[in-house]
Amino acid sequence: MRMLFLASAVLMVANGLAAPAQAAPSLTRGPYLQVGTHDAISIRWRTSEATDSRVNYGAGPASLGYHAEDAALTTEHEVRLTGLSPAARYFYDVGSGAGPLAGGDSSYSFATSPPTGPAAATRVWVVGDAGLGNAGARQVRDAYALFTGARPTDLWLILGDNAYFSGTDAEYQAGVFDMYPKMLRQSVAWPTRGNHDVLHTGGNNDYYDIFTMPTAAEAGGVASGTEAYYSFDRANIHFICLDSEGSDRSRGGAMMTWLRADLSATGRDWVILFWHHPPYSKGSHDSDNDLDSGARMGEMRRNALPILDSLGVDLVLSGHSHSYERSILVDGHYGVSSTLVSGMKVDSGDGRESGGGAYRKHSAGRGPHEGTVYAVAGSSSQVSGGPLNHPVMTTSLNVMGSMVIDVSARRLDAVFLDDQGAPRDSFTIVKAPESGVGGGAAGALQLAAPEPNPSRGAARLTYSLPRSGQARLSIVDASGRHVALLLEGAAGPGSHVLSWNGRSDSGRPMPDGLYFAMLQFAGETRTRKVTLLR
Q1: Side-chain half-sphere of 474: how many Cα atoms within 13 Å?
Q2: 416-456, pLDDT tens digit by residue?
Q3: Residue 256 φ then ψ, to 5°
């Protein structure tokens, strides 16, 4: 066929006719950034015709002195840039050996992450159920753009249902690539899969074809061996993506086993998790009802949350319910909403410095059972109502919007921004420097880890009050039921020691298992895990 085409072309030229021109390739998707680290990043794009792949990059739009390329002919291009400098801004264009198709101006740029470990200011944008590609999604997008202004978005999290209604390639084009072209080419997107992100036969037309996720710890953490769930680091933050839609959610399954290993291995100060189906919600979906969403919400609550509490997690983000819901600082709540008791409320306030005060953790980094905030942010392109009355939530809104999270050394600030740009909810988590009793700052309310722990007899509990006042120190079981009262009344400032003998208030020996010591003073609560073994 090729020889026949050439012969025809020669004949046409000989007769004074022009040979038919082949269509020039054009950019039909992207570019978009994936798997960004402190020294590498992947850039993807799509073209109308198969070509080789080339990225030119450098320190300025007119200084693209470096390049990376792939000679294979394809319409689905992916080039990984390596050997980059940490915390550096690069400019780029994309195309082929024949020349660039897009880029070369200041809007085509990205910043590498800072070195892993030390704290660095980080801004995260969070959208959930954003894939309708409608006017609402545009309003949410534009409200965030106005809010952040010249402040770059360091990364963004996409909480599933990324393209309605079945995650086809055309729906992804409308709901993602045509909706967020500037964000995609400037900030690394980290997605999770939702129930509308259906997997389709054939190549390059569903969630796993369209996005690139780490499988071998390319961006930090422990290798998962799958794109379904993964982790990555940025500065002093560890992010974990779980797959509540398609992976085994059982306690002994591969995902939960990996989760425990990954959490145990990280040395980062902050841990943020995200997945699609919320463990707590009374919006358009009901987390109490295991007939809703194939029990995914209940299974994630029962099987994932005990791991998170035992190893220390700060924030969990989900979508699925088309509303915004945000919890108090909570620990140990694994049942339906009616089982929430006071012992599970590490801090029942609103978490606002202008309100009831920021949520405070006494460990400098991660500490077990210090509480987690859960947010449902599934209203980035639609709202669907619901009773919005889950008792773990301090704020519930049937409002479209997105979340903005800023993390620094010892402080996390989050705001829910509605589609008109108004902040409708906010909270702050503050971690104290590791110092003094219980890892808190000198002069702060502190409760040290019990000694010994596990305890086969009496467990010694050392606590410290910042000033004189009414204090309460009690023991509750793993379900939050009261077991023993060790102190209730006036106490002076400074360090004190009490012990629990493993018995209830009535003197009954308690069975082996997990308990919690709870210190309450001036509206604040400190909690420590006590393991009883006889």
Answers
A1: 19
A2: 999 999 999 999 999 976 433 333 444 678 888 888 888 88
A3: -70, -35
Owner of token pair 């590490």? 346
- What CA–CA distance (Å, rounded) separates 469 from 17? 98
Helix or strand run (H / E) with residue 430: strand 423-431
Which amino acid is located at 59 in the chain? A
**147-195 confidence digits (pLDDT tens):** 999 999 999 999 999 999 999 999 999 999 999 999 999 999 999 999 9
185 touches 32 (CB < 8 A): yes
Domains of the chain: 29-111 (2.60.40.10), 122-431 (3.60.21.10), 437-532 (2.60.40.4070)
Q: Are 282 and 330 in contact (CB under 8 A)?
A: no
Residues 6+ apart with CB under 8 A from 239: 157, 190, 231, 232, 233, 271, 272, 273, 274
> Residue type at 209?
D
Place of tokens 């339906």: 336
Q: Are 405 and 124 in contact (CB under 8 A)?
A: yes
DSSP lists the bridge partners of residue 503 as: 509
424 contacts 137 by C-beta, under 8 angstroms = no
Q: Do the Cβ atoms of 124 and 157 come closer than 8 Å?
A: yes
Which pLDDT belongs to residue 13?
A: 39
**Are residues 40 and 90 in contact, defined by beta-carbon separation less than 8 angstroms?**
no
Distance CA 203, CA 210 (A): 9
